[in-house]
């Protein structure tokens, strides 16, 4: 009988978005997500705890990122916004039931 | 009294909407001021819809549109006027979540009424918000 141990590390990157995640910044977020995926980083946590406004363009950037990560056996998970004007778009579109969402980065990192 | 905001048809300019809306609602002593976040999102999303659908990328550098806000009793009326291309309603939403196309869905949930008409080569959207 032989025993062989090997270790595997998974990389999870966090992108923190403070302030507005609107049509202007959605473009920047898309670029950030695409860059990560192009480097093979397909487990992402987007932290919206300090976001104060999110619109449908910001939501679309997150949704596209989630779709692209899941197609590569990863995921994009979202730390819930604490500001009402940032959380609103998720409940209106029911994307709060589509993304895996959590209250902290640590909680979502541990979810993998 | 009508509060007016004229914006260039680019995303950056939409950041003027929130402060303008707050000032207008405060000046009118409108009860809707307590729901500023909801109104801001609705007005912002309709502005984005205009930028995305009324104008192509080349046109956005020079095109403008106007937003008018008035109060009638306790109702707030917001009119959007642009002279871009005719708006075409989107196809029915599929069951599965899509990457985009949620702007009007958001507006319809936040505004009391949403109407659109094409008048003399202009698009006119009107949102109303009850008390």
Overall description:
- The complex is a heterodimer of chains A (112) and B (131).
- Chain A is of the alpha/beta class and 112 residues long.
- Chain A has a single domain, classed as Transcription Regulator spoIIAA, CATH 3.30.750.24.
- Chain A is 43% helix and 21% strand.
- Chain A is built from four helices and six strands, in the order E-E-H-E-E-H-E-H-E-H.
- In chain A, strands 1-3-5-6 form a four-stranded parallel beta sheet. In chain A, strands 2-4 form a two-stranded parallel ribbon.
- In chain A, helix 1 runs parallel beside helix 2 (56-71).
- The mean pLDDT of chain A is 96.
- The two termini of chain B are 18 Å apart.
- Chain B has one domain: 2-Layer Sandwich (Heat Shock Protein 90).
- Chain B is globular, with a radius of gyration of 15 Å.
- Chain B has three helices and five strands, in the order βααββαββ.
- The mean pLDDT of chain B is 93.
- Chain B has helices at residues 17-27, 36-54, 103-110; strands spanning 3-8, 64-72, 75-82, 113-119, 122-129.
- Helices cover 29% and strands 29% of the residues of chain B.
- In chain B, helix 1 crosses helix 2 and helix 2 runs antiparallel to helix 3 (103-110).
- In chain B, a hairpin with a 2-residue loop joins strand 2 and strand 3 (75-82).
- Chain B has a five-stranded antiparallel beta sheet with strand order 1-2-3-5-4.
- Chain B is of the alpha+beta class and 131 residues long.
- Chain A binds chain B through residues 20, 22-24, 53, 55-57, 59-60, 63-64, 67, 84-85, 88-89, 92-95, 98, and chain B through 11-12, 14-15, 18, 37-38, 40-41, 44-45, 48, 51, 97-100, 102-103, 105-106, 109-110.
- Would you tell me the structural class of the helices and strands of chain A? alpha/beta
Helix segment tally of chain A: 4
CATH superfamily membership of chain B: Histidine kinase-like ATPase, C-terminal domain
Mean pLDDT of chain B: 93
Radius of gyration of chain A: 15 Å
List the uncertain runs of chain A. none
User: Would you count the extended β strands of chain B for me?
Assistant: 5
Strand content of chain A: 15-25%
Shape of chain A: elongated
Tally of separate domains of chain B: 1
Q: What percentage of residues of chain A falls in helices of 4 or more residues?
A: 40-55%
- State the helix count of chain B: 3
Can you identify the CATH class of chain B? Alpha Beta
- Strand order, sheet with most strands of chain B: 1-2-3-5-4
Which fold does the CATH topology of chain B refer to? Answer: Heat Shock Protein 90
Indicate the radius of gyration of chain B in whole angstroms: 15 Å
Q: Outline the biggest β-sheet of chain A.
A: 4 strands, parallel
What does the oligomeric state look like here?
heterodimer
**Given the C-alpha coordinates, what overall shape of chain B results?**
globular
């Amino acid at each position: 009988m032989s025993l062989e141990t090997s270790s595997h590390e998974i990389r999870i990157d966090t992108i923190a978005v403070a302030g507005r995640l609107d049509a202007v910044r959605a473009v920047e977020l898309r670029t950030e997500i695409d860059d990560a995926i192009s480097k093979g980083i397909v487990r992402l946590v987007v932290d919206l705890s300090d976001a104060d406004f999110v619109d449908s363009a910001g939501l679309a950037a997150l949704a596209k990122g989630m779709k692209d990560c899941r197609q590569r056996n990863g995921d994009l998970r979202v730390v819930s916004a604490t500001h009402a004007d940032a959380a609103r778009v998720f409940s209106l579109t029911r994307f709060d039931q589509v993304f895996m969402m959590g209250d902290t980065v640590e909680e979502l990192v541990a979810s993998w | 009294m009508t509060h007016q905001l004229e914006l260039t048809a680019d995303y950056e300019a939409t950041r003027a909407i929130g402060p303008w809306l707050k000032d207008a609602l405060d000046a009118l002593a409108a009860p809707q001021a307590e729901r500023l976040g909801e109104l801001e999102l609705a007005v912002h999303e309709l502005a984005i819809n205009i930028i995305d659908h009324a104008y192509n990328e080349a046109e956005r550098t020079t095109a403008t549109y106007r937003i008018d806000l008035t109060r009638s009793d306790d109702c707030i009326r917001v009119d959007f006027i642009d002279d871009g291309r005719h708006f075409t309603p989107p196809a029915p939403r599929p069951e599965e979540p899509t990457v985009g196309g949620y702007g009007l869905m958001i507006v319809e949930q936040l505004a009391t009424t949403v109407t659109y008409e094409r008048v003399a080569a202009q698009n006119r959207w009107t949102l109303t918000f009850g008390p």
